[in-house]
Amino acid sequence: MRIDNWIKTIFDNLYDGILIIDTNEIVKYVNPAYTRITKVTYDKIVGNRLRDIRPGARLQNVLTTKKPIVGVLREELGIQYSVNMSPIFDDAGLIGAISVVSTIDDIYKLYQDIDKYKSKVKSLENRISAIQKAKYTLNDIISEDISSIELKNTIKKIAYKDITVLIFGESGTGKELYANAIHNESYRSDGPFIAVNCASFQGSLLDSELFGYEEGSFTGAKKEGKMGLFEAANKGTIFLDEISEMDFEVQAKLLRTLQEGTIRKIGSVKETAIDVRVITATNKNLEEMVVNGSFRNDLYYRISVFPLIIPPLRERKDDIFPLVYTFLNSYKNSLKKDIILSKEAESALYNYNWPGNIRELRNSIEFAINMMEDNEIKLKHLPVRIQADKKEYVSYKLADKIREVEKQEILKRINLFGDNIEGKRKAANSLGISLATLYNKVK
Q1: What is the pTM of this model?
Q2: What's the CATH number where 353 sits?
Q3: Tens digit of pLDDT for each residue in 91-100?
Q4: Domain range holding 224?
Q5: Same domain (yes/no): 255, 202
Q6: Which of 120, 143, 276, 398 is buried most deeply by CB count within 10 Å?
C-alpha cells in the first residue's frame, strides 16, 4: 500500500487521529494527531503489526469482515478515546483498513455543544409558538347581557366545525378577541394563530406578507426569500382583520387559496398545499362594497359562510358595569386600594352611547383613575364628552326602547340564520315580517 503525498498532507493536518494498516495488519501510516491522542510514538508503531503494538485493537477484524465498526470506546494507558474503523478498497479489492480516533473529551464537548444548541433552538421554538398562540378564550369575554351570552353560545356551536367565519362589528367591539376565542374552542387550538391587519399593508405588500416570495422575486426582496403568513399558520388559524381594505388583486389570490387549499409564492410556479382556517373581520358593509365594485362578490360569499355579528356596547347595556369593574380591578393591585364609583358616575357611564365601544370604555376608566383625588371616581373625573352627554340618555322615550329591543332581536336572528340574502329572508320569516320591513328596520 502506498500513500500519495497530497493525501498524506491532508491526513497530517487533520485534528482527529488517523491510523492505516495493510492487509497484513502492518501499520503503514499514523498522523501527528494519532500520536498526540494515544501517546504512542511514530517510530514505535509504524512498520509493525498492529496487534503486537496495540493488543486490544480491533482494526484487523475489519480486514476479515470487510465491514465498518463505528463508535468503539477504547482506553489505553489511562487515555479514553473513540474509534471508527472502515475497510479500504481499490479497483482490485481490499487493500487495507483505516481507524479514525477522537478523544472522549472532544466528543463530550461536541455533545455539550449540541445540547446547548438544541436548548437554544427549543427556546426559540417555544418563543415563536407563544407569539403565534391565541391569547384569549371564551372565558376572557365579559358576557352578562343576554345578547353577549347568546353570541358566546353560537361560537361554541360553530368553532369546532372548521368553517370560514366573517365577524362584523363596529370599531372597538373586540373582534380579534372573538377570533382568538373561536380558535381556542376549535380542534386547531394547539396550532398557530396568526393575526393580520390588512389595513397595515398596501397593495402588493400584503401579497408578499400573506403568501411569501421566492429568492430574487423583486427589487428589495430578501436574498433567501420569505415564508408567507399562510404557510406560518399551517394547521392553525389565520385572522384577517379589516379585510375590506384588502387590495383587489390580493382578494383574487385569497379566493384561490380558499377554494384550492394551496398558496403560490410571488415568483414561484409551484403550488404549496396548506391546511389553514380563515377568520375575517370588518366594520364596513361588505355587501355595499360588492355593489359598488370595491370588493369581489365571489370572495364575499366565500368568506361569509358563517357571519358573526358583535352588537355594539350601547346595545348590550348589561355588559357595561361588569366591564367597568373588570377594568377597575386591573388597577386595584397597582394602586393598592379599592376604587369606587359615585352614583352620578355610574349613571353617566350607563347612559352614554359609547360610539368607541369597549375600547372607549377602557380608555375612559383609565382617564378617570388618573383624574381622581382619592379612591372614588366622580362624575367630574370622567371625560368631558361623557359628562356632557349624561342628561341626554338618563331618560328615554318608550318608542326608543322598543326600537332598541327590535334591533337586538333582528340582529340575533340574522346572526342565527346568516347575513346573506337567504339568511335575512329566513330571519324575516321567523320574526313574522317581510324582507323589505327587515331591511328598513336594519337601516
Answers
A1: 0.62
A2: 1.10.8.60
A3: 889 999 999 9
A4: 138-311
A5: yes
A6: 276
